Description:
The protein is of the alpha+beta class. The protein is about 30% helix and about 20% strand. It has a single domain (about 1-140), classed as CATH 1.10.630.10. A hairpin with an 8-residue loop joins strand 6 (about 120) and strand 7 (about 130-135).
Amino acid sequence: MLKQLRKNPKLLPQGTEEILRYETPVQTVARVAIEDVELDGYTIRKGERVVVSLGAANRDPLQFNQAAQFDIKRPIARNLAFGSGIHYCLGSNLAKMVCQIAFSAISQEFCEIKLANDPPKWRNNFIIRSLERLIVVLHK
């Protein structure tokens, strides 16, 4: 990804959206049904609580071509990384801007980034997907 960003910085918005789609930070949210609804032959009654998997929705092959693949050139498409509707994250634009500034600075300063020998360590959390540890080696 770094090499592609160095060659074509215009990919930053697409790359940021793709990272958010691919590694959705908030994986699940709880909601309450406001009316009865049938979903795939199952009835969810008004007032029942449901857990929605945003991470799974962002890998839906009906919404995203080759959804399981990371593609920095994927056209920007609506994803649920920051929720939707009245629950949409008010800080989403700021978060995207910070990511783009960081990726831009790293791609300009370094030509390569690799994982160190230690594998990434993910936090054990059903709701938030985040790293506890990520050791990388940067090459100029």
